[in-house]
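Lab notebook: predicted structure, single chain.

Context: the supervisor wants predicted structures on file for every construct in the current expression panel, including those that have not yet been purified. This is the next one on the list. No modifications to the sequence; it matches the entry in the shared construct table.
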Amino acid sequence: MSTQPQKTSNAWAISLILHVGLLLATAFLWTNYVPSGLKTAEQEKPVGIVIASTASNQVETEYFGESTYTTSQASTDTPSEQATPPTLNQPLTLPDIALPGLDQISANSALPSTGDALDTGQLAGGFPSPGPSANQIAREQGKLPQAVSKGPVGEVSLFGGSPAIGHDFVFVIDRSKSMGGQGLNALVAAQQQITHALEAFKDNHHFNIIAYHHRPTYFQDGNELASANLAGIKKVNDFFNGLAAFGGTDHEMGIIAALRYKPDVIFFMTDGGDPSLNQSQLSDLKKYCGGRTSIHSVQFGFGPLQEKQNFMSRLAEITGGNFHYVDMRKSSPKQ
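Prediction complete. Output recorded below exactly as produced.
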């Protein structure tokens, strides 16, 4: 009666042994399985940077790792010679870029080249040539003697303004359309004032007149100022009578043309039309004056002065001159 339970127990034991064996075989095969097409790296290899330098009889190789580097040297002639650190012997080269407009830049000064004067070129077809730099003008002003007496000074007052004192005077007059007979008629008024002032000049006083619009016209060309004798005063009238009022306005060019003569005083006469002088231009003109030339501004207009602080008044102030406004309704020139 006990044979049947013993057979059942043996069957369970055999089944358990077979299942455990299958699980162990499956685990062993799984752990040793390698997918096809993939290979493991046999050994990790370091990565670095190599720089090789070859001389006439020496080869240097440098290996740069993450934090250190080593240098090995092989020499066929002098094995005992120590290796020298590598250097960069080739100079840094910059691209040759042509800056635009350099060959077209020209200063506002249109002055003839005359002997000892600042070399500024001559007019060609009405186009201005490059003018002097601020440093050139400052050097030329500095060359002038400081203590040489030129005799008694002269006083010039135009349109009842404050008198200007000196030996050499340059009168700069705007001849644009607004200053002519169809505008303010200021050219005729300036002619009368200048000729009257020249009549009081002494032999040691000299002058020139520059009428400008988009280019300058000189009463006397060359490097020398004129003398105020009877013949010279007659030529002044002829000069004004031959002027026609037209064209645009270049105030800076007219003033720089006058500074070429290194005068004591410049009378700058215009209605102050556009384009006005900006702060940079005013600062440059102050440097060009070099502390030796004062600029007296005379502004023309109809009616009361509209703007008391303008570029003409600032120019006079920074150069040691005076500003004067002329109401042409009250100062009509005599015909």
